[in-house]
Amino acid sequence: MNVMSDNSQTADEAVISAPFFLRGDLVEGTAANHRSRDLGVEFATPDLDLDKAILPRHELPPLLNMPLDEIIDFLVETGRRMADPANPYMSEVVERMCNTHILPRQVLEMQVATAAAYLNRDLLKTTVERNFHDPRVLDEWVPQEDFTGRKSYVRAFAPRLVHVLPGNSPGVAVKSIAQGALVKAFNLFKMSSSDPFTTVAILRTMADIDAGHPIVQSMSAAYWRGGDEMVEPIIFRPQYFDRIVAWGGGDAIDNVIKYLGPGLQLVSFDPKTSISMVGREAFASDEAMRQAAELAADDVMILNQEACVASRFQFVEGSEEQVDRFGKALHQAIVKRAAASGDKRALDPDMREQIETLSFLDDEFRVWGKLDGSGVVVRSEEPVDFHPINKTANVVRVDSLDDAMRFVNVATQTVGFYPFDRMDDYRDRLASGGAQRIVRLGEGGPSTIGNPHDAMYPLQRFVQWMAHEDGTRAGADSAQGDMSGTLE
To answer: Fewer CB in a 10 Å sphere around the end CB: N or C, the chain?
Structure first.
């Protein structure tokens, strides 16, 4: 069954081509035209063959009986091939993505160049070991026995996953491919309009190693417009998939929620906001203040503030004079990092207008920087109403970091904290407020390998947990009678 977007038209030769990859085969064509989310650049895609992208329930997942060690071997070799400067697919990705992605070339080049680092043997093994108490459950039916002597077997069965990939970070593509392989899933990756290229480039690299490999036969990547009524009502069904693994903004998450029901669940890496908390110890000396501002700028500028872990609000404990000194130093540090990255993106017109308005309210707000996209800091007594992005930081003055706790909620992902020796005093309260991660200020970027992500161990959520009970047990018959009423 082939489907074509309802905005299909004859593609002009100048339109960028974004091919699909369906279970080992590259599919090229210009059946449908789309526009990238941020830049509005046109790109063309082929028809989507849903029969090729879906695995019928009566067919076992191709990776089911491949040992985990062999899967990791293949992923490591893929990483080696990705890092090879002669790899034509990865070098081509940057050229194409520069047309559709909002991030500057230098940042995209760095993202693509470092993506292969995720396919590291120790990293992959640690990820599995942290997600599963006994990783054998991925390879076999592991025997269990309860306190009554009743025996059973448990397996983390290979799931069928649709991954809705984000547009902000090309590096998520390689991570999602690796995670799908580690749980032996059958995977369909819905690429973003900002980056309908990276996932296919990685899968083509895999196919060059072995197009018939079970990993390659378990992977498909395509693009369709989110909410496309010709695609999603067909794909998002429990007959075909077990989980929708969705990254992205509120609209993307809201779009897939309507398809959920018995048998089709959502694993959501939904929109998050990260913050910084800076104690008054930062003003113990000029050097301490400068260091705190530099560390805070590191967190603001993660992926040029496109990542969820990038700090947007900095709650700073001190007097107005002290906090203004911090705001000025933070602005200088942000400008320096923005210039080094080559990021010259203009501010969103609506946000620019709001900041211009605030700049006239000197009694309540103070603004450092030009509104030309080079970096700006707004100091306020309450968090601003807009979402700081594109090298924009909101410094919120508080008398005590305790006052900042009322702004922590379930959408708070990472909290960068200074001074480091006060972190223990706040971690329980931050967790109770809904935050999911506390780190030293300046270390919001890469997390400890294998740690929870968005308050969960994702691989545990991906798999289908299956139990086989054989009905034998070593206990007395009376135990069976005592326990029978507890079964559902």
So the answer is: C
Buried b (16+ CB within 10 A) or exposed e, 89-101: bbeebbebbeebb
Residue 75 burial by Cβ neighbours in a 10 Å radius (0-12, 13-18, 19+): buried
Q: Is the pTM of this model over 0.85?
A: yes
Residue with structure tokens 């930081």?
A: 393
pLDDT of residue 361: 79
Q: What are the extents of the domains in the chain?
A: 2-271, 273-440
| pLDDT tens digits for range 184-221 | 999 999 999 999 999 999 999 999 999 999 999 999 99
Q: Cα–Cα distances in Å, from 209 out to 73, 215, 220, 223, 238? A: 12, 11, 16, 24, 32
Distances (CA, A) of 309 to 222, 294, 369, 465: 27, 17, 23, 31
Which class is domain 2-271? alpha beta
Query: Which ranges constitute the DSSP H helices of 224-348?
Result: 232-235, 250-257, 286-300, 320-341
Look at residues 358, 360, 423, 426 and name the one whose alpha carbon lies nearest to residue 395. 358
Ranges under pLDDT 50 in the chain = 5-13, 475-476, 478-481, 483-488
Q: Which residues contact 485 (CB under 8 A, 6 or more apart)?
A: none
Phi and psi of 396, rounded to 5°?
A: -110, 115
The Cα–Cα gap between 341 and 209 comes to 34
Beta bridge partners of 415: 275, 438
The two counts, helices (H) then strands (E), for the chain are: 16, 22
Separation between Cα atoms, residue 121 and residue 222, nearest integer Å: 28
Domain made up of 273-440: CATH architecture = 3-Layer(aba) Sandwich (3.40)
